[in-house]
Write a sequence for this structure.
C-alpha cells in the first residue's frame, strides 16, 4: 500500500513536469507568432506615388514625437513608412540614430510632393536633420534609391485612402 502512494506521487510529479513543458512550449509559440504578426497588425495604407505602389505603415505624430519607430530598420522593396501629422508645418526628421539610408518625401495637405531628400542617412554631408522647404502634412520614408527608380518628383501627387487615416489624425 505504501508503494502505491509513492507511485501516485511520482505520477503527479511527471504530470506537473509534462504540463510545465507544454505550457512553456505554448508560450514560446505564442511569442513567436506575436513577433511575426506584429507588423501585419500595425495600421497601414497602400500608397501610389510616381511609378511605385507601396505598402506603408502608418505612424502618427504622437509616435513620431516619441521617436520609437524604425530607428535603424532598413525598409524592404515596396515598403514605406507614412508619418501623419496633425497640421501643416516644417516637420524635420533626425537621422542621427538611423543605421540605414532612406529616401524621404514630404507631402502637403493635398498629397503633392513638396520636398525630397535622397539617400538621407546619419553620414550625410548636409547633416543629420532634414527639414522640408515648405510646410508638409505627411512624410513618406522609402527604401534608399526608390525616388530615382520609381521616377518620383516634385509636384507628383500621392494617392492613398484617407479613410484609413480615420482615428489617427487629431
Amino acid at each position: 500500500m505504501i508503494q502505491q502512494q509513492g507511485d501516485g506521487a511520482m505520477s503527479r510529479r511527471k504530470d506537473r513536469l509534462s504540463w510545465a513543458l507544454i505550457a512553456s512550449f505554448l508560450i514560446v509559440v505564442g511569442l513567436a507568432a506575436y513577433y511575426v504578426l506584429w507588423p501585419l497588425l500595425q495600421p497601414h495604407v497602400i500608397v501610389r506615388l510616381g511609378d511605385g505602389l507601396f505598402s506603408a505603415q502608418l505612424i502618427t505624430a504622437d509616435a513620431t514625437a516619441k521617436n520609437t519607430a524604425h530607428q535603424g530598420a532598413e525598409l524592404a522593396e515596396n515598403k514605406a513608412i507614412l508619418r501623419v501629422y496633425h497640421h501643416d508645418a516644417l516637420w524635420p526628421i533626425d537621422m542621427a540614430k538611423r543605421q540605414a539610408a532612406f529616401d524621404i518625401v514630404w507631402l502637403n495637405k493635398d498629397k503633392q510632393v513638396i520636398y525630397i531628400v535622397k539617400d538621407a542617412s546619419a553620414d550625410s554631408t548636409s547633416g543629420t536633420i532634414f527639414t522640408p522647404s515648405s510646410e508638409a502634412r505627411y512624410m513618406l520614408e522609402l527604401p534608399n534609391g526608390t525616388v530615382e527608380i520609381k521616377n518620383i518628383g516634385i509636384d507628383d501627387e500621392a494617392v492613398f485612402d484617407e479613410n484609413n487615416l480615420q482615428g489617427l489624425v487629431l
